[in-house]
Amino acid sequence: MLNSIKSTIPSMEQRKSQINLLNFMEQEKLQQRRDSNSEFLFPDDNLLHKRRPSQADHSATQSEDDENFASFESYMVIEFDKSINRDALYWIIDKIRKKKSDGGAQLIIRSEPCLSDERGLIIHISATKLRLLEIADEIGFTKPTKNGLRSFNIGSLDDFIFDGMSMDDILTPADKQFVIKHALENIKARENERFLPGCAAVSLYHGQSIIHAAIQEELIVNMYSLHNKEFMKRLGTEWWNLRHLFKRQPIEKIRKYFGDGIAFYFSFVEYYTISLMIPTFLGLLQYTFGDGESSPFFFCSYVIWMTVFLEVWKRKQSVMAYKWGTLSLTNVELPRPEYYGKIGRDPITGKMTPQYPLYKTQIQVYFVSVPVIVLCTIGAIFLTLFTIYLEDYFILQYGLESYITMIPSIIQSILVAVLTVFYDRFATYLTVMENHRTQSQFERHRVNKLIVLEFVNNFFSLFYIAFIKQDMKNLQNQLLTQMIVLQFVQNAQEFLVPKFKQKYILWFCCGDVYKQLENDDKNDTKSIQSNYDDLNILQLEENDPRIKQNLRESAKDEYNTYDDYLELYIQFGYVSLFSSITPAAAFWALFNNFFEIRLDAYKLCKTFRRPFARRQKNIGAWHLAFEALACISIMSNCAILYLSPQVKELTEGMSTELKLILFVGLEHFLLLLAWIIHKAINDRPSSVRIALAKADYESKQALKRELVKNKIN
């Protein structure tokens, strides 16, 4: 998506000039640092630890950038297992800091002082500004210029600095984190590197991600980013603080810090919450003035709302993706770091990448995953039938009005919440075993499994009550009970469980170190003799606040948006599947979501680790999941209307065949109406379509000018 008026292909002289300028700036900062006699970054030679003699061949691995870097900002933290083989550790460290031309990532490393024999080596990773921009150039970020969006190119750096910007402003915090993670994951094994040094059992193949191989073999036990505490403090005052409960979220700031994926989620949940005001209002009218004659009208209104809600979101997310420079993300994705297979030439890109036979993935999908999912759904069905049987038994024993009869419904709701967590982990495990090539394929198959499992888990009991027992009063009670209990359990689970887990790890697994850091004065914390001095890595100072912060955040859970999207998916099902008979569901969803947005923001900033930034152009497979639920809701609500007592009274004089034809016709009419709305509302507004067409035209013109220029020269 190149929106430029100049050639997007800089000359070699221009590119060389920009790189020389960056190198000059780094050298200037280096000299300023030397003049200040900083011992932290430039210690005397006698303070530097010598490398292990057997590693002499590897280095020159103390990168020149490591010596020239004037200030250290931690972008990534890696914790190695304490029992890792020394040769393997040295090799991985050298790979991280070697120059790119030598097969390394050319990143900068600082180690934490050793505070306990129970923990392995902990390193913080950064990079020079020049290296960050070089990797961003390789990735192909789309960035704003004076004349619109353009693919970032370090050779035309001046174009990306405007309106008082500095070089630091080109990449956002999320971009920098993404760049470092990309550089680490793209440290690939060379053709002659068949196994990890010192670990003959850990085989490597040409092109495999070395960092991921180390994670799989548990040689690396943690890899994550630390939160920027100052940014979090500023963001919290206008985001998760309850004083801003009715204000819009700072989506742009969220995107710059957490990345596109997180920003899309919070934008979607805000849009969905605001949209819930319409069915809430309709539900209030239905509850106040509704009768049997007006039920079809309200149901048709719900159908129109669901369809318009999803179609307008498509337009909204395309506008955001264009503004953020991700709308043109190619469908030709690189393989996931976890993807494995024999190295071969990619038929599209021509690059050497892992190749895994598609039929093996399909065998795993259709002969392992599908049967297992079917067995899980059968188990969930039997569990649901048992709770329904238990409820009927209590009604016979204690009467319909007894509070004891509510116990099975509450138990069912709690079981649904617990099984939701299990299904999430289980679907992930099955999808990993399938070995999908790209991240989008992985997510689509994972979401498909979750949709099936959670649909049965959450909604089978409601369908049984509605269409087998045909007890509409019980359906209303069960749905609202299940919905409210589930939302309460999920919110408590999201907030309390990670907090208790973090405290447990800190006090019982890292107790001595944590107490030392908590109780000692800032300048009083003492390190012990390190076993990694021969790595020749400069250390953070013992009173560096990142050491204490790292210990706390290493005990936190990882965050992903799957659980939150799944929660919205289930809630949308409660609102839509039986909207014709449970108008209050939309109100409870709206009430919950006003607080859910702030709770999600708080847990993201305070309870979980900082998630890895992801580049996205939409909410992925979840949109299809919501659309599927909307289609099913049309059929389920038509069936509910057909069985409802009010409609039966209105159609008392009709034959059964005529009534069936009438409601099947209504169902087909509403499906047709939804399809018409889907086609009438374009996924991209005209402004975005025009901008894309203009960018494509100007890109072609720029390429033509460059070709003519090259011919002349």
Number of DSSP helical runs? 23
Radius of gyration: 29 Å
Kindly state the percentage of residues in helix.
Answer: 55-70%
Per DSSP E runs of 2 or more residues, the count of β-strands stands at 10
Strand content: 5-15%
The structural class is: mainly alpha
The strands making up the biggest β-sheet line up spatially as 2-3-1-8
Overall pLDDT: 80
Query: Uncertain regions: pLDDT < 50 for 5+ in a row?
Result: 1-12, 29-70
Q: Main beta sheet, described? A: 4 strands, antiparallel
- Quote the distance from N terminus to C terminus: 28 Å
Apparent shape: globular
Provide a compact summary of the structure.
This protein has 23 helices and 10 strands. It is mainly alpha-helical. It has a 4-stranded antiparallel β-sheet, with helices on one face. The chain has a two-stranded antiparallel ribbon with strand order 4-5.
Description of the structure:
The structure is a single chain. The chain has about 725 residues and is mainly α. It is about 60% helix and about 5% strand. The chain is built from 23 helices and ten strands. The strands form four sheets. Strands 2-3-1-8 form a four-stranded antiparallel beta sheet, with helices on one face. The chain has a two-stranded antiparallel sheet with strand order 4-5. A two-stranded antiparallel ribbon has the order 6-7. α4 (about 130-140) packs across α5. The longest helix is centred in the middle third of the chain and has 41 residues, at about 360-400.
